[in-house]
């Protein structure tokens, strides 16, 4: 186990360095820059813009900028936003709760619903439910979330008035009920796509397990269908889902750009979009690193959990 | 007592008195049942209620001297004060200062170099400390600190020898006379010395996330990415505040932004206001007050005068005649903006109304080009001396109104043998070096040429302001006219308003003749707020709708 962890750690570090270099280069190659937001300010002269560029350290050669940034990162200083000077970690931290709330609830819904639909579809193959689930999954995967979101707002908020049109909570009211009321529509819209993916994977995995010999043996022994399902099939069918869950971990904390914009949800996805718009390099790099670390961590945890749970797998 | 009343009616005296008392009371109360007339509205005695202002960009910069954008300004006007304010008519009013210095009252010396500002003595910071001249000195020195990421230093960089004569008086000397400095000072908010002098790095101070000012509102709380809440400052020295809470809400998507105004989640629309295509519907919404407010920004086609196609004045004149501006205003922008011939906003004291209105005339355009020697080539595009009349037009991508205007112009230009291609870019690219260093052919852009109400446009039209040629300004058209240069230099040295007006009238005349840019129209903002909110007055001399939030109150 220790050897495995050490080798993974060294691989991860190399990966992080590569990701950061590629990200940094691409970011700086983009035309425009942090001065564009002041481009039409009536009182700011080119002198002011040049001075600001110098003060932000943007006139130094790229490799100097990169090494300076990387050295500080290693020491725990993720840099300061070009927009308001706040530390990048503080900026990210401000949006963390909103993201966790939205992504957490949508993931829980997605996994619960997806698992159930997948298993049901597999056990009642080619039934009406199964066809409905298949078609539904195709529809959910093809239609973009912003369309779903806007339609949801139109129907449930503007027409019926049941649900609020956006935001995390009503200003002035911050009760738990208020939060939940605002959470319903965005988390359902987001969950829709994930339900589709989960149910398809779950269905295939379940079909895989159901056709195995040990399941036939259990049935032959007289075990009730329900017990066969719950005790023997589901557990084994969930194994490949652990890997899938590991890949979902990063999105749990990096948020969903489109849904957050449509529902005016103050999460990390929106932060990323806004930071890109202002060419706020430190924040964008910080989010990039954050996301990369989460991806690596997610896969690592998934691998370890699978190794623990599945006796057939030996860690390298 | 007699059981039988002696009066001819059946009323006893007691009954009569009772009836009179009731009538008297009723007559006192009755008018109130009809509701107070509008002019009878008075603000509440103590701050009450809240207003939610919607913004389409998030204010994140709360240090008023740091580099910032328009939406940040709205918050600063409520949290901080400046030495003077500028009112909607363009007249300077004292704010933290007791009076506006001028050459008449001796606040500014005859040569314009020595300034003396007298300050109020009844102002306190939000943390209770008294405001003094030390804060003014600290503010100006901070702006010119080379390590500080200041918003702009023009004007402040000319200040020398700031002396605190007393807690209510400060003097300084300017390197050269600079009349626009008064306007600049209306946008320079004063920051507290006793808090900021302790910070090692002025760019990353804790103050930046929890600012302390002298304004009508104090810092409440902020939910990043969602909204910002300010609370009333009961000890404010000026008028108001009448609201208990002022909330700025960030809604990035413009459709959702307008929807929240319709549904009432937002009490007032801030930047970027309501788009012209929603104006007709918005003005009919019940319970909403929607007004057209002329903005100081002028929309135009900016030409890069170093491109060979535009060096000939005949070309510029012909292009101007080939623009059907009225059709663009009426059909594409729903009649909301107003046509203009100059960069000076029409509500300005310095506006020159004598410029002849340009008529759309394709025949005249063709005639001008023919006479100048621009002959249509085999592909129908005019050329002369090997230069084809073909160029690109760029603006922010995703702005659907501008895109339609571009296509419209493309058609009319094609009819006179000019080829215009459309090449739009995302905002972060368009307004970076591409714009600043004049790398474009032409651009469709809305520019506010004035700062406050000051007509000094040296930054835009002086030869020394051409950044692409090593200058220090925003003369993106690369326009150079020595006569205009001389006029601009004189204008910035003159303090007398009438004299300045004559100077800037001439500047407008010359610029209109030279056509470094082709004016389309003066922008108009479609502003809206809920009925019942009093005190809302648009001010074209500031960049924000919240410049006087201290005066707002809800009808009772």
Give a verbal description of the structure.
The complex is a heterodimer of chains A (316) and B (556). With 316 residues, chain A is mainly α. Chain A is built from 13 helices and no strands. The mean pLDDT of chain A is 88. In chain B, the strands form six sheets. A five-stranded mixed beta sheet of chain B has the order 7-8-9-1-10, sandwiched between helices. A five-stranded mixed beta sheet of chain B has the order 16-15-17-11-18. Classes of the chains: A mainly alpha (316), B alpha+beta (556). Chains A and B meet through α2, α4, α6 and α12 of A and β9, α6, α12, α13 and β17 of B.
Segments of chain A where pLDDT lies below 50 for 5+ residues? none
Task: Please give the alpha-carbon distance between the first and last residues of chain A.
Answer: 8 Å
The average pLDDT of chain B is 89
Question: β content of chain B, as a range?
Answer: 15-25%
Q: How far apart lie the N and C ends of chain B?
A: 50 Å
Q: Give the count of helical stretches of chain B.
A: 16
Q: How many helical elements of chain A?
A: 13
Q: Which sequence of strands runs across the widest sheet of chain B?
A: 7-8-9-1-10
Pair of chains with the largest interface and how many residues each contributes: A-B, 57 and 69 residues
**Average predicted confidence as pLDDT of chain A:** 88
The outline of chain A comes out as globular
Percent in helix of chain B: 25-40%
* Overall number of strands of chain A: 0
**In one word, what is the shape of chain B?**
globular
Question: Major sheet of chain B: size, sense and barrel closure?
Answer: 5 strands, mixed
Q: Work out the radius of gyration of chain B.
A: 29 Å
- Into which percent range does the helicity of residues of chain A fall? over 70%
What share of the residues of chain A does DSSP label as strand, in percent? under 5%
Order of helices and strands of chain A: HHHHHHHHHHHHH
Biggest sheet overview of chain A? none
The count of β-strands of chain B is: 20
């Amino acid at each position: 186990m220790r050897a495995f962890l050490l080798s993974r750690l060294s691989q991860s570090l190399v990966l992080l360095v590569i990701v950061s270099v590629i990200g940094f280069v691409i970011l700086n190659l983009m035309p425009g820059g942090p001065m564009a937001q002041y481009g039409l300010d009536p009182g700011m002269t080119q002198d002011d813009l040049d001075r600001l560029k110098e003060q932000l350290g943007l006139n130094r050669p790229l490799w100097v900028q990169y090494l300076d940034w990387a050295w500080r990162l290693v020491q725990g200083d993720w840099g300061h936003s070009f927009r308001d000077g706040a530390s990048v970690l503080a900026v990210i931290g401000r949006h963390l709760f909103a993201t966790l709330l939205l992504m957490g609830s949508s993931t829980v819904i997605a996994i619960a619903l997806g698992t159930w639909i997948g298993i049901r579809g597999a056990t009642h193959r080619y039934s009406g439910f199964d066809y409905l689930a298949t078609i539904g999954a195709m529809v959910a995967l093809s239609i973009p979330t912003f369309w779903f979101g806007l339609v949801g707002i139109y129907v449930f908020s503007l027409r019926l008035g049941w649900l609020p049109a956006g935001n995390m909570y009503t200003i002035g009211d911050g009760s738990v009920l208020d939060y939940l009321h605002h959470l319903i529509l965005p988390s359902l819209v987001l969950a829709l796509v994930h339900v589709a993916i989960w149910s398809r994977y779950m269905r295939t995995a379940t079909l895989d397990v159901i056709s195995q010999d040990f399941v036939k043996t259990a049935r032959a022994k007289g075990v009730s269908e329900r017990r066969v399902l719950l005790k023997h099939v589901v557990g084994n069918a969930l194994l490949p889902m652990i890997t899938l869950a590991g890949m979902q971990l990063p999105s749990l904390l990096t948020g969903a750009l489109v849904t957050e914009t449509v529902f005016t949800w103050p999460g990390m996805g929106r932060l990323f979009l806004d930071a890109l718009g202002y060419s706020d390099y430190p924040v964008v790099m910080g989010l990039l690193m954050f996301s990369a670390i989460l991806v690596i961590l997610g896969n690592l945890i998934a691998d370890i959990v699978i190794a623990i749970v599945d006796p057939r797998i030996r860690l390298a | 007592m007699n059981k039988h009343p002696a009066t001819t009616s059946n009323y006893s005296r007691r009954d009569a008195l009772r009836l009179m008392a009731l009538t008297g009371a009723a007559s006192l109360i009755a008018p109130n049942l009809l509701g107070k007339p509008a002019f009878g509205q008075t603000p509440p005695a103590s701050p009450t209620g809240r207003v939610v202002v919607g913004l389409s960009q998030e204010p994140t910069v709360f240090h008023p001297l740091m580099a910032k954008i328009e939406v940040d300004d709205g918050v600063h006007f409520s949290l901080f004060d400046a030495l003077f304010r500028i009112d909607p008519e363009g007249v300077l009013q004292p704010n933290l200062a007791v009076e506006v210095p001028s050459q008449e009252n001796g606040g500014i010396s005859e040569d314009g170099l020595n300034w003396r500002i007298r300050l109020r003595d009844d102002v306190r910071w939000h943390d209770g400390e008294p405001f003094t001249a030390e804060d003014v000195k600290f503010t100006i020195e901070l702006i010119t600190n080379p390590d500080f990421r200041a918003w702009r230093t023009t004007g402040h960089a000319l200040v020398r020898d700031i002396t605190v004569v007393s807690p209510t008086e400060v003097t300084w000397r300017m390197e050269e006379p600079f009349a626009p400095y008064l306007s600049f000072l209306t946008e320079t908010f004063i920051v507290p010395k006793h808090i900021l002098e302790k910070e090692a790095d002025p760019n990353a101070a804790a103050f930046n996330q929890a600012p302390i000012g002298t304004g009508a509102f104090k810092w409440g709380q902020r939910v990043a990415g969602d909204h910002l809440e300010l609370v009333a400052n009961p000890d404010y020295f000026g008028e108001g505040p009448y609201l208990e809470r002022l909330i700025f809400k960030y809604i990035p998507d413009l459709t959702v932004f307008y929807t929240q105004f319709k549904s009432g989640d937002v009490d007032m629309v801030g930047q970027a206001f309501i788009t012209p295509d929603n104006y007709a519907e918005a003005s009919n919404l019940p319970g909403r007050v929607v007004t057209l407010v002329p903005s100081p920004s002028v929309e135009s086609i900016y030409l890069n005068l170093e491109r060979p196609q535009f060096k000939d004045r005949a070309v510029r004149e012909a292009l101007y005649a080939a623009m059907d501006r009225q059709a663009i205003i009426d059909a594409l922008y729903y009649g909301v903006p107003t046509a203009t011939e100059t960069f000076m906003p029409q509500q300005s004291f310095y506006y020159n109304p004598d410029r002849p209105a340009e008529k759309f005339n394709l025949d005249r355009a063709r005639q001008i080009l023919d006479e100048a020697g621009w002959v249509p080539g085999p592909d129908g595009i005019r050329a002369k001396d090997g230069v084809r009349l073909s160029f690109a037009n760029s603006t922010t991508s995703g702005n659907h109104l501008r895109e339609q205007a571009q296509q419209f112009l493309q058609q009319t230009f094609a009819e006179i043998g000019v080829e215009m291609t459309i090449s739009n870019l995302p905002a972060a690219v368009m307004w970076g070096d591409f714009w600043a260093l004049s790398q474009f052919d032409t651009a469709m852009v809305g520019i506010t040429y004035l700062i406050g109400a000051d007509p000094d446009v040296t930054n835009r039209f002086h030869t020394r302001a051409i950044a692409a040629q090593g200058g220090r300004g925003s003369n993106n058209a690369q326009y150079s006219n020595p006569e205009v240069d001389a006029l601009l230099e004189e204008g910035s040295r003159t303090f007398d308003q009438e004299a300045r007006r004559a100077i800037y009238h001439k500047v407008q005349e010359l610029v209109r003749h030279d056509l470094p840019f082709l004016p389309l129209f003066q922008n108009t903002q479609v502003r809206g707020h809920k009925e019942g909110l009093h005190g809302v007055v648009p001010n074209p001399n500031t960049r924000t709708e919240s410049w006087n939030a201290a005066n707002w109150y809800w009808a009772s």
